Amino acid sequence: MACIIWYLHLQINILSKFSDLPIVGSSLCIGVILTEFNNFDIFLQDSKLLEALVENRKRSVAYVGAFLLKDDPETDPSIVSGSDSAKSINDLKGKDLFKRLHEVGTLAQITSIQGDQVVLVGHRRLRITEMVDEDPLTVKVDHLKEKPYNKDDDVIKATSFEVIATLRDILKTNSLWKDHVQTYTQHIGDFNYPRLADFGAAISGANKLLCQQVLEELDVYERLKLTLELVKKEMEISKIQESIAKAIEEKISGDQRRYLLNEQLKAIKKELGLETDDKSALTAKFGERLEPKNKQCPPHVLQVIEEELNKLQLLEASSSEFNVTRNYLDWLTALPWGNYSDENFDIQHAQKILDEDHYGLSDVKERILEFIAVGKLRGTSQGKIICLSGPPGVGKTSVGHSMARALNRRFYRFSVGGLADVAEIKGHRRTYVGAMPGKMVQCLKNVGTANPLVLIDEIDKLGKGHAGDPASALLELLDPEQNANFLDHFLDVPIDLSKVLFVCTANVVEMIPNPLLDRMEVIALAGYITDEKMHIARDYLEKTTREACGIKSEQVEVTDAALLALIENYCREAGVRNLQKQIEKIYRKIALQLVRQGVTNEQSLKVSLQQGAKQLREKSTEEPTQIADDGPGGKKLEDGNSHERATTTTLTESEQAIEVSLHEQPNGTATEESEATSHEHLVEQLEADKVQPTLLSSDGIATTDQPVDSKVNIKTSDVKDVKVDNVIEKVIVDVSNLADFVGKPVFHAERIYDQTPVGVVMGLAWTAMGGSTLYVETALVEQGEGKGALLLTGQLGDVMKESAQIAHTVARAKLLQKEPDNPFFADSKLHLHVPAGATPKDGPSAGCTMITSMLSLAMKKHVKKELAMTGEVTLTGRILPIGGVKEKIIAARRSEVKTIIFPSANRRDFDELAANVKEGLEVHFVDDYNQIFELAFGSNSKPQI
Ligand SMILES: Nc1ncnc2c1ncn2[C@@H]1O[C@H](COP(=O)(O)OP(=O)(O)OP(=O)(O)O)[C@@H](O)[C@H]1O
């Protein structure tokens, strides 16, 4: 008992110290989980308590009691931290403190005291019985012992094992527990069940209230169960901790990996020069690009480039501004500053190239040569804008191309047909998203020289934009006065376009905006007459098409008659594009025909080759005798393979059948005897079939040559390599089979009448598609006094309608002059029609034709046969000039007109025409309608009865 008293005494002091423990925080748990295997540090703030402890220790009383406080905010979740109760814990003394203590606590040994730090080791359980002193709090206690238990109880054993196993598992996964491992392994022999339960609970890190439960539990089995619960919970926490750690580790390592890979990628890109974002790489790239043109590059451009490069360095690589600047620099450095191709002013060379590419067009070629000659004398060819005008397909674009070739300039073509946006020419401002420079800057970048030949196609079809006027922008571009400092909106630095040679093309010159037209040198390409088309077709179109189709000239023949028929019946327009299409059509069909033939040949060849090779191999093993070839050029048999290579004979069906029957000999091998018989039979068959073997050319197309004696070839084929002469299989396109290639004629003769009836006269018209003939027909609708009137049909435009009114008046005056008593016009309602009704027509040039048609009806006289006329008429009967003389003459020739009447003012145009265009025509030039009257109704014109 003395011992107990001693203990009690000690513990009174210790307990009083414990009143301070809540302040120290971590020491709270000590009150619950102190075991003799662990040391715990606590810090005491209560000086009185500390003094008492030091005093006790000096007296070798080194034991205290440690108790957990009730309602402690750290242990009891129902107490909100910072509340009044939590705050006042430090101030608790005496009874108040006593009431707040849990009854069961731990007897702890003080192992050291350093300042306010006290190190405790727990030993056994205590229960408070009564309070002895208030400050420091001193209490009486009972020592508690576990309830007796059966050491061999299986359930207790099993539970304890489970606790141990769980603790081991936790130790494996949780590194925090490693410190405890040592203690655990050191004292493993000292463990009994209650101590194991205490140890497990002490290191579990569970809630202190739960630990207090373990402390208060005196039943060993129950205590073990409680501990097991705590360590199992700990195990789960460990697992969660592990998975959290793993996930975080993965995330971190993933990020790190990505970072590393990115860095590597950057390094690789840089190494390969692909690094786009790298500013220094970009600067180096632009610098490198600019290096060769540095000297020729204008200083103002160099300055801008330098400024932009500096700006680029300051910009964030991911910013949009950076991309804009980079794009801008890209364009700026890509332009061929000061890089010119050497111009060739050699007239002979130019003539050669122009003749090489185009037939005829002598006047056009002459104009181009003149232009080059001027360039030679001046040393430069800029300053002029050439406009090639004419109907479609007359070669405007290709003449432009030839010009570039002749002058040794790079060629660039762009079409402005329907172009309505000025930005297409002048570029967009850089600030817009997706901004692009204009066509000219694109052209310069594309061609890589600063003096290309730029062909602006379809300039007459320029659109009218709501955002600016493209014609005005073109003016700035084309005008030699302005284009030395052409300013593209995107580029924003002046570019010198004065060295660029501009060639425009147009179908109708009148449609070109006047200020533009004013600056142009118009060269008209009128269209081709039949004779010219024949030459173009023969010497140019056919040749190029044949090559394009991979056909050899000896395989095809298109006769002159077929070509003529093609031109006259299918391709009557001014240009030759349609003619080109038709020729292509013919050649495509021929190509198909040849390939089909070639494929058949190839297949049958394979069969015969296999057969022949097999037979030869058999033969050469059985009968090595060499047999001379009796065909021309035959060779001695060397081996089966050489035979296989050389044999190129095609067999007919019957031949193949025999080959197959040979092949199907029993045992798979033909006997020598049966072979001999079979071959004889084969030869007979072939003779009967009149087989014409065809030789395949290297490209798989059957080539043709001389017919061969199939008997000789086949006879030798089983022992020798066969040398078969080619069979001619020329495809001939003639008038008779032309329709098989190009279908039925599309055009029928423009001539409706052989001899025009009374009231009908042939006129000549001009359209954007070239010239054409047209009839003006006048008929009487009704007659009666004062009924004179004029009805018009045939989709006539306003000008043509007016022209008809004028014609009516002039015709009336002329009739009055010629036949004063004839009241025809005053009393007749006339109907004037111009076929074809579906085609809109306009213009004043049919004036004289209309008058003649009306007079013919009035006087009931035919006009002269094969006569056509054109000319505008004034009210007084004067004849005014018209346009498109060449086109009209070409159209007249097509309609087999022999006599043409033109206004006198057009004589100059006529004289300029080539002799072959004028050939065989009787052309009259007139000033006044009276002259036409004489020519149309001359002495041989008789009134109709
Ligand atoms: N005199 C000629 N000699 C040889 N080939 C010609 C001749 N005239 C035109 N061609 C050929 O006719 C085809 C059409 O010519 P191109 O495309 O130049 O016509 P275009 O007048 O520019 O037509 P569009 O007004 O429709 O643009 C080209 O293949 C061209 O080579």
From TrEMBL:
Q: What is its main location?
A: mitochondrion
GO term, biological process aspect, one: cellular response to oxidative stress
Q: Where in the cell is it found?
A: Mitochondrion matrix
Question: Catalytic activity annotated for this protein?
Answer: Hydrolysis of proteins in presence of ATP
Q: Does the keyword Cell inner membrane apply?
A: no
Q: Domain of life of the organism in this record?
A: Eukaryota
Kindly report, in one word, the top-level EC class recorded for this enzyme: hydrolase
Which residue spans adopt a coiled-coil conformation according to this UniProt entry? 221-250
Residue numbers binding ATP: 390-397
Residue span(s) of domain Lon proteolytic: 755-939
Q: Where is the active site?
A: 845, 888
GO MF terms held by the record: ATP binding; ATP hydrolysis activity; ATP-dependent peptidase activity; sequence-specific DNA binding; serine-type endopeptidase activity; single-stranded DNA binding
What does the UniProt keyword field contain?
ATP-binding, Coiled coil, DNA-binding, Hydrolase, Mitochondrion, Nucleotide-binding, Protease, Serine protease
Q: What is its EC number?
A: 3.4.21.53
The record's PANTHER family line, in alphabetical order, gives: LON PROTEASE, LON PROTEASE HOMOLOG, MITOCHONDRIAL
Summarize subunit and interaction data from the UniProt record for this chain: Homohexamer or homoheptamer. Organized in a ring with a central cavity.
What function does the entry list?
A: ATP-dependent serine protease that mediates the selective degradation of misfolded, unassembled or oxidatively damaged polypeptides as well as certain short-lived regulatory proteins in the mitochondrial matrix. May also have a chaperone function in the assembly of inner membrane protein complexes. Participates in the regulation of mitochondrial gene expression and in the maintenance of the integrity of the mitochondrial genome. Binds to mitochondrial DNA in a site-specific manner.
Protein name (database record): Lon protease homolog, mitochondrial
